Amino acid sequence: xxxxxxLLQTVLFCGCIAxxxxxxxxxxxxxxxxxxxxxxxxxxELFEYIIDGRSDPFxxxxxxxxxxxxxxxxxxxxxxxxxxxxxxxxxxxxxxxxMAEDNDFAMAExxxxxxxxxxxxxxxxxxGIITAIQSNEVIIEETAFTRxxxxxxSNIVMLLKKEGEE
Length: 166
Known about the structure:
The protein is an alpha+beta fold.
């Protein structure tokens, strides 16, 4: 508090000196001299920047890392998941494949031993669709979209393990 009072007195004193110098200069010197004298008196004033409650002016608003990752970030699935969409392909074990004429299907079980039937065209996981059922594997195509609108696709293969394999 005492420092603020001293600082205020100093500023007032410098202001009075500046006013008296301006009055003297107007009588005897040109306007250029008045400006030079004003600048000379203002150099003696102290300036204190108080940072409390203010953000750092030298920190950028957007970092390079966040800008680059947000464009390539995969958008979350917005719809409600149900049925086989609740299971990712890695959570299931393929236990049987049945090849009929036009009605191929596979059987998978979860970690608790509960069984499920898989058919071509069925949705599985958050983004997957079963595209093919072959004699020893089930192929799942996963499709995702980034924030930039880029479509990303990947194929996941669930292999039928022979008896005794882990």
